[in-house]
Amino acid sequence: QVQLVESGGGLVQAGVSLRLSCAASGRTLSNYGMGWFRQAPGKEREFVAATSKSGGILDYADSVKGRFTISRDNAKNTVYLQMNSLKPEDTAIYYCAASSRTWYARGNSGAYDYWGQGTQVTVST
Question: How sure is the predictor about 51, in pLDDT bands with cuts at 50, 70 and 90?
Answer without folding.
Answer: very high
